Automatic annotation (TrEMBL):
Residues 21-102, 130-625 form the Aminoacyl-tRNA synthetase class Ia domain. A motif ('HIGH' region) lies at residues 48-58. Its main location: cytoplasm. The gene is valS. A motif ('KMSKS' region) lies at residues 587-591. Its EC number is 6.1.1.9. It comes from Curtobacterium citri. This is Valine--tRNA ligase. It holds the Pfam family tRNA-synt_1.
Amino acid sequence: MSKPMPEKPTVDGLEQVWGPVWEQDGTYRFDRDSATKDAVYSIDTPPPTASGSLHIGHVFSYTHTDLKARYERMRGKHVFYPMGWDDNGLPTERRVQNYYGVRCDPQLPYDPAFVPPFEGGDGKSAKAADQLPISRRNFIELCERLTVQDEQQFEHLFRTLGLSVDWTQSYRTIDDTSRASAQRAFLRNLERGEAYQADAPTLWDVTFRTAVAQAELEDKEMPGAYHGLAFHRTDGGEDVVIQTTRPELLPACVALVAHPDDERFQDLFGKTVRSPLFDVEVPVLAHHLAQQDKGAGIAMVCTFGDTTDVVWWRELQLPNRAIIGFDGRVRSDEPTWIESARGKELYAEMAGKTVFSAKKVLVDALTESGELVGDVKTINHPVKFFEKGDKPLEIVSTRQWYIVNGARDEQLRSTLHRRGEEIAFHPDFMRVRYDNWVGGLSGDWLISRQRFFGVPLPVWYPLDADGNPVFDQPIVPTEDQLPVDPASEPAPGYEESQRGVAGGFQGELDVMDTWATSSLTPQLAGKWETDPALYDLVFPYDVRPQAQDIIRTWLFTTVLRSQLEADVAPWKHASISGFIVDPDRKKMSKSKGNVVTPLSILEQHGADAVRYWAASSKLGTDAAFDAQNPKQIKVGRRLAIKVLNAAKFVYGFELPSGATSVTEALDVDMLAELASVIDQATTAFDGFDHARALEVTERFFWTFCDDYLELVKERAYGTATDATHETQASAVLALRAAIDALLRLLAPFLPFATEEVWAWTHETSVHRASWPTTAELPTQAAPTGLLAAVGQALIGIRGAKTAAKASQKTPVTRAVVSAPAEQRALIERAAVDLAAVGRIENLSFTDGEELAVTEIELAEQQA
């Protein structure tokens, strides 16, 4: 491990030097054979989505995790630090579509010789019409190919960054092991009654043609307009005018609803009205969710315009008259509830049109009939989107699979609240996001997706004598048969020839939501059920690091699955990183086009510099990044360079023979200050405050370099006036002890620079060295303030020389330092060192109100 000290140390290229050494030596390998459960520190590392490139935000948050991992390893823990790759899901499919110019058509046969039209995603394939349809198997093969390529790039980036991951402990969310684990968990949910299927209104993305769960929603401000529609009372009274932003859903109207306390509509409750244009009779009902101050105070309930419609439909037991299809267009089959010739004719004109075109047809008809009341009022309002989609969601009726999550089970909801209380959130204010999510759940977790690259739901359905599937009698495999793909494998007890035949079987085509697999990362990384000894060592984990925006998805669903399967919280701690924002304080995202890719930044400035920038931000705090002027990264590079140069200077001193103790007051006080820094940094790391640990360490390091090294170097060289073997030995001992401790304090932040320096004098890695303690320092004393006081005096002497436009090497014939009595007494204890560094022939002290150099006489300067 040891290497010769270079003549001119440099931070450039250290990643290429030390990365292979760490891998070869197994520096970060998890030694399970030597580990006991109480000595393990296990990390449920976030598996990045393998769909494109990592951005600077990944570098930011993954560095935070690595800091804690390195600290715990130096504290003597056996650190279980795996890395997973989240392969399956919509982001991967979309990337494959754009990259290869293809789209999946499961009706097409497999082509073993298929070659994609192009590679590289040059923009030609962004539209579905431009994409070549291929079979499901061909599509999945392309997904596999591209994710492997992406994962190799990701691993290279993370290795360059210096993550101390154990790369032998890695997994993919789509490989056989992960698919078996996800299917096993689902089958156990099904057996315990926690998984079920139901026909229900479902949030639907018309672009991706898939169901969307509550946790995947995001609101976007969109333009809209209120239209006044006149409903006609069947008792002959005055028309009832409602305001709606979705007049195109008028054929799907099933009721009008007003608040039960609204005096304006008391005489209407229990009566009926007829819809404009279509002349369909619907009831007027009372419900507490109706808003008296919104629109006209009375709402049109349609199946389904928004999630409130779903609530009204369910609680008021209304009929389902859905008219929007899976493609986002008005369905072509004629509604049975529309009986008037005029209504049928108008609906036929709307059929097959997008909701936008259908709205125009209907508004024109309402205008012509006079049933559009008042002016159309334009507004901006929040509309629900799939977080990865670009069109508003529709609500369609489908058969889907669900897992209970406490939305309809108060006991489970209460338990999940309690599990959240058992987890220590860092920072603690992030806990409220979990609590609010659990408290606001409105439906069970919809886990089935109508996609292709994912973990198949492991069920088949028997077909009756007429060839119809019997959904309430699903056929399931045994756990030893997992993983299975019902779309390509026959059901247990059947042959492939019986697929789709009356009396045979039908395979489930849906796959699981990506979170249904990702929620099992503790199980996947710990090899649940396949390596029980390892799983018992690492589970429950010590920490889950993650981003704040997926508390409602990844964090919550992991807690849920752990509760359902093991009745415990999956980790003790949750560390939540903030976002990276651009110079305008906007969150970086691919959709905004302001993402910075990190590899060039790492290559230009070095990994230690980039890690320093990331480590300077506390957990939960957003950080700005300006690629054109990365000031903090430049500061980090300067620090790494200073570590190399300061250590070279210190290690250049030979330890005098017989040197055993630190005797000089300045040396003792420096080590006492260092002891305080060690205590503060340790406390900070224990409390997940890496930024504080860096702050106190860095501040002391610069004081050590700028003041202490300058003050004692003459004595360390043995050239100071009155220097003795004992005083020289004191300085060198103190210097060596300090730099050894500082290297270890800085090792989590600057792993490459500190390893380089450590190797000059040690046989083993600094990252396997023990975290410094105050007990190991060669002297035990309380700080007196001596180092700070002498440093301030040195600044005064330097300032006086600068004011006289003289070199710092200019000798001083005479200098007088004035200070309050207490400070004066401290400085006088280091007078020899102060005189030596200032080249002062005659140094004296007087009492004064503040510390200052009151008199100074410079020797005649040499030409």
